[in-house]
């Protein structure tokens, strides 16, 4: 491996790569059903607030850490910490980095589900109208493994090609296609009968329905969703920063990333909720909303295979963009930490990820009696809980403490890195807000969420 770290060829390549990390199942699978469960528009308001007041500052810090450290989480922490500090800041960073594996352990499986449905719709297979198809898929470990493997192989091949030669070019094509599909689907959904009621549920707050009158549960869900969709706190964004140059300031770049992420999330809601209203189905159907409920909706549309096919192509592309971005963090870790070549690192983590994805699959069939979080739960729920409700928010708190602590990186060095290059400057007066307010709020909401879940 050469000593020169790869970089993005263009500014657009960096923005789309980082946005690709953020834009994925969090926007188009998880966001709609969580919004449906927590009352629609009020959840959306809480979510956008969490993005602006917590997600944006945390993203800035993670990008700065990656760009200054020119490495994945552990290496960047080790390089940037105060050399006089006795605390080994990089050691907990290994735990946070493991969040990428926990995320991919179920992300690959769900992406495989999307690929399965995409193939069925594109080939006009009438089996998609079978109400028990999703249950049949979950009960078949062999079918799930095949589609999971296909998703992982595509991801690994793209990452093995390098940042400029393969990843950046692939992401540009995928994101362009994603936004075209998104625009077509939104326009069609808004023309459906009774679509306006779906839009009202999604965008007009009803203050009598605030997560079942549980404010903390709704805030915790919104905060978890914000950190899940941005993948902040486990180093996925930091690795994107490690591939960018210093010609642009980070504040402006982060704004574009979060704006693109929010546009996709809101647009996904403008597809799904009008469809639900048009055909009188519940928007709070949970994780099965896309695979069961919306499939019934497509069946009642004109040209059902066309619209269903476009929808699942859109979902698959969105999920694949995140798979690529997060897997690249693992590949880069192998190259940084063990000096492996890119191809060797991708090959090793391909095997590791494939094996670690199996428990999620088996949790729906062979190991379905294992219910780690209580009756009705499964291994996917456990993996999602570890990442979304713990590693992501707690990782963000740890990142803030490190960046604004004298024994860590330090405020002056942080803001110097944030504001290097052309573009908007991030004001230094925000340091006390970031240092004291954000961690306290995150920890309070996290604690309330844990209390709600277990007590």
Q: Overview of this structure, please?
A:
- The protein has 455 residues and is mainly alpha-helical.
- It is built from 18 helices and no strands.
- It has helices at 11-22, 25-37, 41-69, 73-80, 90-122, 133-139, 141-160, 163-190, 195-203, 215-230, 236-242, 250-278, 289-299, 304-338, 342-362, 379-403, 411-418, 431-454.
- Helix 3 runs parallel beside helix 10 (215-230) and helix 4 packs antiparallel against helix 5.
- The protein is globular.
- The model has no long low-confidence stretch (mean pLDDT 87).
- Rounded mean pLDDT is 87
Number of contiguous helices:
18
The geometry reads as globular
Helix content: over 70%
Largest sheet: none
Low-pLDDT runs = none
Helices and strands, in order, run as: HHHHHHHHHHHHHHHHHH
What structural class should be given to the helix and strand makeup? mainly alpha
Kindly report how far apart the N and C termini lie: 50 Å
According to DSSP, the number of beta strands is 0
SSE order and pairing:
Blueprint: H1 11-22, H2 25-37, H3 41-69, H4 73-80, H5 90-122, H6 133-139, H7 141-160, H8 163-190, H9 195-203, H10 215-230, H11 236-242, H12 250-278, H13 289-299, H14 304-338, H15 342-362, H16 379-403, H17 411-418, H18 431-454
Helix pairs in contact: 1-8, 1-11, 1-12, 1-14, 2-10, 2-12, 3-4, 3-10, 3-11, 3-12, 3-16, 4-5, 5-7, 5-14, 5-15, 5-16, 7-14, 7-15, 8-12, 8-14, 9-12, 10-16, 10-18, 11-14, 12-13, 14-15, 16-18
Structure keywords:
455 residues; mainly alpha; 74% helix
């Amino acid at each position: 491996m050469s000593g020169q770290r790869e970089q993005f060829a263009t500014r657009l390549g960096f923005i789309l790569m980082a946005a690709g990390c953020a834009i994925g199942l969090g926007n188009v699978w998880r966001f709609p059903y969580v919004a449906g469960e927590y009352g629609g528009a009020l959840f959306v308001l809480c979510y956008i607030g969490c993005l602006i007041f917590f997600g944006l500052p945390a993203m800035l810090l993670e990008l700065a850490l990656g760009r200054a450290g020119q490495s994945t989480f552990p290496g960047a922490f080790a390089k940037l910490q105060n050399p006089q500090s006795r605390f080994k800041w990089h050691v907990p960073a290994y735990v946070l980095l493991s969040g990428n594996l926990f995320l991919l352990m179920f992300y690959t499986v769900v992406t495989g589900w999307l690929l399965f449905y995409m193939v069925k719709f594109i080939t006009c297979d009438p089996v998609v109208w079978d109400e028990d198809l999703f249950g049949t898929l979950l009960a078949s470990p062999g079918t799930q493994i095949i589609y999971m493997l296909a998703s992982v192989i595509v991801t690994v091949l793209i990452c093995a090609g390098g940042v400029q030669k393969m990843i950046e070019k692939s992401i540009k094509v995928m994101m362009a296609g994603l936004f075209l599909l998104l625009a077509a689907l939104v326009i069609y959904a808004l023309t459906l009968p009774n679509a306006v009621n779906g839009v009202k549920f999604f965008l007009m707050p009803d203050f009598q329905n605030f997560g079942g009158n549980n404010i903390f549960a709704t805030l915790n869900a919104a905060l978890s969703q914000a950190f899940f969709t941005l993948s902040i706190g486990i180093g996925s964004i930091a690795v994107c920063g490690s591939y960018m140059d210093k010609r642009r300031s980070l504040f402006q770049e982060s704004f574009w990333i979060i704006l693109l992420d929010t546009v996709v999330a809101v647009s996904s809601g403008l597809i799904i909720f009008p469809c639900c209203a048009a055909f009188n189905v519940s928007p709070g159907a949970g994780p099965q909303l896309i695979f069961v409920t919306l499939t019934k909706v497509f069946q009642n549309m004109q040209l059902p295979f066309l619209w269903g096919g476009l929808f699942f192509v859109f979902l698959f592309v969105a999920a694949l963009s995140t798979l690529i971005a997060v897997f690249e963090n693992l590949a880069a870790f192998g190259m940084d930490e063990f000096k492996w070549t890119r191809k060797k690192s991708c090959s090793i983590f391909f095997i590791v990820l494939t094996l670690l994805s199996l428990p999620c699959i088996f949790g729906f069939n062979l190991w379905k009696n294992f219910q780690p979080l209580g009756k009705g739960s499964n291994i996917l729920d456990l993996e999602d809980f570890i990442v979304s409700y713990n590693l992501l928010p707690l990782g963000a708190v740890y990142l803030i403490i490190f960046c604004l602590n004298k024994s860590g990186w330090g405020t002056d060095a942080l803001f110097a890195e944030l504001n290097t290059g052309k573009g908007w400057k991030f004001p230094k007066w925000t340091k006390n807000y970031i240092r004291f307010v954000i961690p306290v709020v995150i920890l309070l909401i996290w604690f309330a969420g844990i209390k709600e879940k277990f007590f």
